[in-house]
């Protein structure tokens, strides 16, 4: 029996370096006496280009420098300034204001970033780091430290035609902090709810006299608790980066990270169950109690993870640019939990991912082409040892179950972005070959498969900033570490049709987006609780809906982010009694609004006040759609206040005091997913004092 996420969870579970290099080498030799870097570095080209809250271009969608307005696909971003204003503590916090994204389906659970996009789970297959897939194993999912990010790009809909194995719902590309050209230094201390104490630093700048080598070093140390006494939130994080740019045409950046974190092995609460005439529990869950399901004496979940990789770019001439990104990652877990007995999972995974592509820009008649041709290779290996037994609390049970897998995925792809007058046409195709060796409980499963995925999208960009588009795309995702019905799970496939429109308001730093979509997905792997036991199943589903989003950073100090989503996700194949039902924990309606205002003059100059509300509509608590565990609608209020202390006294220049609160009104309702119920995370307040120089 697999213990990984089932008993453990009692649940189913930048900005860019190019701001460094925007100027020619001879101009970089200019020495400035003092430089203050605040918020996002606007107006620069690279992985994510943004002006305040409004992103203008991103490489994540096409792997080329393409304006978001001219990219015929739904794209949302979390810019550097948004990260600074909201200070998210997890990936879920960071994307919680993004349309189409459902977070909190498992209540408060700091162990995994479990979420969905457009009703499709993306926890295992939707998270990328710097344009490369983040390889995961069943119980080995990389944790995110948001302080190490420059920004986030969220692509909604399939992106497999250039990324290969990824979710039909979309991908989330996490953009790491990279070296900056100008010196940049900050230190910060934090305190807050549940005994939180944290210190962090971020240092960057040139390290060579000829301004060809630059560095960045980011880190933090935290000791903290959570609203569950048995669940810690301790962390050590360090992320070094070095960039070498010998000339304007060549750049090499090395990115590293090490993180040692400890949280809880389980964060679930016991559920009450209805019983039959004999007193045996049935599968009808009637709600979560306030009784913690684990034991604080045996509940540490320690995870050590690391990655090292590089990004190389060489502009051969005006026509050809060669890029390669490669990363090696490793992760080890030691997860203790108690659920009627002591359980232990020790899992180690290793992964290497490499993407090499050639960008070709040419003109054929009146048509401009940006052609991308590439080779993408990834390899994942993991070993999981698990045990469960009745032993003295605090003692490790015997690790009597073992599984291991090696999975290799190789893909070749080509994409052409055609530009003719106001028309924009994107065509892409990719072929992947999968090889997998899976050994569980002495049984060997070998799997070889291949799949073609494609994308076609057409857009029209008007001279006044309006850009309607239509797109089609497919996806293909193998399922590591999954055995169903005595054999390995079938790969998940999907298809989407989308119709949308984007509008960049002329003369205003603001953008509006809208999209209508229709997704069909086959053989999706999901968890559901049956007779109090968590089981994996595969199902077919269809998700339809529409999204609205608006972002703006205005000259009078006002920043706005607003979104609304309607999603109707239905089961098309699972069991006879569930066909046509709503997919568990996917609400029809979600909406969010964040307003941030900084006083521009007078005695209160530099005072920033922000508030946000996140609305989550009602949803089904299980795939049978039983009213007894339907999730009621709810709203969460967030707030922030900050002040640059130099406005009080010039000698305090560089000091900023800030307080952030999430779920300010302490909305602590019950949320049920796959027939198991949890509690929302309550109010959390963090105060910080930052010094930049």
UniProtKB/TrEMBL annotation:
Ranges for domain TonB-dependent receptor plug: 70-171
Major localisation: membrane
PANTHER family membership: FERRICHROME IRON RECEPTOR-RELATED, FERRICHROME OUTER MEMBRANE TRANSPORTER_PHAGE RECEPTOR
Full protein name: TonB-dependent siderophore receptor
Family: Belongs to the TonB-dependent receptor family.
Compartments, record wording: Cell outer membrane
Recorded topology in the membrane: Multi-pass membrane protein
Residues in TonB-dependent receptor-like beta-barrel domain copies: 244-664
Organism for this UniProt entry: Microvirga terrae
Domain of life: Bacteria
Nucleus keyword on record: no
Signal peptide bounds: 1-22
Keywords: Cell outer membrane, Ion transport, Iron, Iron transport, Membrane, Receptor, Signal, TonB box, Transmembrane, Transmembrane beta strand, Transport
């Amino acid at each position: 029996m697999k213990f990984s996420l089932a008993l453990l969870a009692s649940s189913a579970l930048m900005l860019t370096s190019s701001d460094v290099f925007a100027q020619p080498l001879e101009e970089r030799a200019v020495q400035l006496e003092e430089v203050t870097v605040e918020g996002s570095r606007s107006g620069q080209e690279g992985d994510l280009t943004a002006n305040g809250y409004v992103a203008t271009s991103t490489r994540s969608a096409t792997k080329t420098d393409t304006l978001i307005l001219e990219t015929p696909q739904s794209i949302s971003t979390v810019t550097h300034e948004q990260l600074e204003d909201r200070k998210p503590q997890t990936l879920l916090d960071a994307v919680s204001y993004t349309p189409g994204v459902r977070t909190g389906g498992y209540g408060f659970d700091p162990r995994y970033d479990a979420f969905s996009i457009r009703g499709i789970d993306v926890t295992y297959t939707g998270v990328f780091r710097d344009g490369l897939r983040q390889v995961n194993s069943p119980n080995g999912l990389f944790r995110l430290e948001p302080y190490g990010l420059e920004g986030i790009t969220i692509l909604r809909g399939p992106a497999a035609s250039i990324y290969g194995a990824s979710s039909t719902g979309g991908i989330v590309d996490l953009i790491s902090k990279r070296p900056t050209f100008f010196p940049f230094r900050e230190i910060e201390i934090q305190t807050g709810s549940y005994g939180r104490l944290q210190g962090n630093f971020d240092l960057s700048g040139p390290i060579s006299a000829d301004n060809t080598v630059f560095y960045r070093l980011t880190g933090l140390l935290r000791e903290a608790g959570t609203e569950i006494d048995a669940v810690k939130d301790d962390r050590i994080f360090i992320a070094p980066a070095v960039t070498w740019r010998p000339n304007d045409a060549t750049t090499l950046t090395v990115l590293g990270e090490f993180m040692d974190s400890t949280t809880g092995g389980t964060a679930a609460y016991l559920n009450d169950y209805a019983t039959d005439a004999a007193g045996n529990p049935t599968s009808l869950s009637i709600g979560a109690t306030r009784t913690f399901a684990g034991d604080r004496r045996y509940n540490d979940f320690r995870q050590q993870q690391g990655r090292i990789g590089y990004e190389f770019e060489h502009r051969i001439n005006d026509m050809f640019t060669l890029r390669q990104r490669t990363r090696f990652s490793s992760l080890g877990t030691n997860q203790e939990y108690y659920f009627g007995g002591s359980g232990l999972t020790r899992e180690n995974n290793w992964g290497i991912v490499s993407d090499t592509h050639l960008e070709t820009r040419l003109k054929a008649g009146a048509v401009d082409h940006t052609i991308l041709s590439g080779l993408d290779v990834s390899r994942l290996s993991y070993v999981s040892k698990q045990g469960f037994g009745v032993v003295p609390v605090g003692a490790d049970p015997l690790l009597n179950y073992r599984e291991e897998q090696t999975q290799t995925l190789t893909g070749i792809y080509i994409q052409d972005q055609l530009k003719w007058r106001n028309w924009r046409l994107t065509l892409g195709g990719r072929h992947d070959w999968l090889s997998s060796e899976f050994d569980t409980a002495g049984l060997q499963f070998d799997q070889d498969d291949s799949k073609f995925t494609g994308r076609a999208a057409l857009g029209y960009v008007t001279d006044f900033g309006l850009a309607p588009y239509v797109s089609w795309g497919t996806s293909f995702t193998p399922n590591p570490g999954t055995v169903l019905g005595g054999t390995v799970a079938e790969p998940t496939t999907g298809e989407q049709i989308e119709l949308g429109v984007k509008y960049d308001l002329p003369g205003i730093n603001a953008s509006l987006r809208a999209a209508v979509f229709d997704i069909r997905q086959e053989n999706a792997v999901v968890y559901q609780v049956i007779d109090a036991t968590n089981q994996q199943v595969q199902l077919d589903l269809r998700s339809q809906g529409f999204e609205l989003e608006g972002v703006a950073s205005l000259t009078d100090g006002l920043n706005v982010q607003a979104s609304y989503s309607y999603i109707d996700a239905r089961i098309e194949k699972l069991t006879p009694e569930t066909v046509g039902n709503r997919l568990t924990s996917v609400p029809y309606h979600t909406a969010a609004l964040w307003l941030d205002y900084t006083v521009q003059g007078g005695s209160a100059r530099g005072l920033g006040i922000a508030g946000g509300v996140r609305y989550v509509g009602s949803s089904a608590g299980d795939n049978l759609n039983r009213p007894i565990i339907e999730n009621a609608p709810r709203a969460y209020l967030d707030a922030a206040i900050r002040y640059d202390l130099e406005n009080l006294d010039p000698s305090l220049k560089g000091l900023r005091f800030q307080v952030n609160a999430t779920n300010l009104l302490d909305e602590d309702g019950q949320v049920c997913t796959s027939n198991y119920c949890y509690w929302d995370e309550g109010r959390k307040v963090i105060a910080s004092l930052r010094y930049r120089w």
